[in-house]
Amino acid sequence: MKNLKNILQDARKNHYAIGQFNISTFEQLKGIFGAVNALRTPVIIGTSEGEAKFLGIEEISALIKIAEKKYKIPFFLNLDHGKDLALIKKAVDCGYSAVHFDGSSFPFEENARYTKEVIKYARKKSVLIEGELGAIKGESGIHQKKVILTEDDLTSPEQAKKFADLTNVDCLAIAVGTTHGMYKEEKGIDFERLGNISCLTMKKFLVLHGGSGISEEDIKKAIDLGIVKININTEIRLIWRDCLEKKLRENQEETKPYKLLADIKDAIQKKVEEKIRMFETRACK
Ligand code: G3H
Ligand code: ZN
After folding, report:
1. I want to staple 106 with a disulfide (CB 3.0 to 4.6 A). Which of 111, 121, 170, 211 is the partner?
2. Which residues are Zn(2+) 1-binding (predicted)?
3. Ligand 1 pocket test, candidate residues 43, 81, 140, 182, most atoms within 8 A of CB
4. For residue 64, what is the enclosing H or E element?
């Protein structure tokens, strides 16, 4: 079976992206399994530190291995925005395919030093490492107001090159205008900055965070400019909450979880399929 590196290389060569969909419940996971099986395309399943702790790193890793056998297609697991080195090491040891070390709150040199520490540990086990440079602000949820970004929050193309050369990280999360979560206004992407980062960090897999609520046109432009991985969380969380509220409202006496949760699985499958088509992710051969 193909590994994540091969797939990201293919995405870069053929101008498409792989979606990372974050989850913290089994019915969300089943929705993703359904989409991958229907379209036969790879995706990355993301767990933030909070999501990973809730699910259990050992449990989610085991479920992914079972899904690979059952559906005969690779499934990739990424620890998203990892800050706790012990948790990152645990994810590596339990078979995660990738780990994202988020050192964005540290000064440049310290961020690079910690990133290299993670690389030293993870690469021995062929786990891909995502570093982060720039501040990708906000939380994955619904917000009243747009987060205001300053020049200092955004990734400088020159610094990105320096960081990439210094650390030799595989994937790089960059701050090019998107923030986590959704709000009334549209998210904007600084395409010029993205293009410059792309030119200067040729061999790195660039990651777009805050993927919820971005228009199809902007997504396609970002992929054209070198984005190969797009992270989506809020849209998945929102479906979960909206479907559950609706079902509970309409079935006040129902106590069977599998009756209340089935629609969530179907709605998430539909959303993930929509994103896979939008990202033009190629099917696994
Ligand atoms: O790391 C996760 C993503 O960046 C999620 O962002 O909640 O805006 O989809 P989102
Ligand atoms: Zn993120």
Report:
1. 111
2. 81, 180, 209
3. 140
4. helix 57-71
Rounded CA separation 81/259 (Å): 33
Is the Cβ–Cβ distance between 269 and 38 less than 8 Å?
A: yes
What are 62's two structure tokens? 């085991």
* CA within 13 Å, CB half, 58: 0
Residue 81 Cα: closest atom of ligand 1: 1
Determine whether 125 is exposed, middle or buried from the number of CB atoms within 10 Å of its CB (0-12, 13-18, 19+): exposed
Torsion angle in degrees (nearest 10) through CA of 179, 196, 7, 273: 40
Fold type of domain 4-278: TIM Barrel (3.20.20)
- Tell me the per-residue pLDDT of 175-207, one tens digit each, with 9 for 90 and over: 999 999 999 888 899 999 999 999 999 989 999
Confidence category of residue 2, pLDDT binned at 50, 70, 90: confident
Q: Is the separation of the CB atoms in 173 and 209 below 8 Å?
A: yes
Please confirm, yes or no, whether 266 is among the known catalytic residues.
no
Element at 81 (helix H, strand E): strand 76-82
Is residue 1 pLDDT above 80, yes or no? no
Distance (Å, whole) CA 187 – CA 39:
28
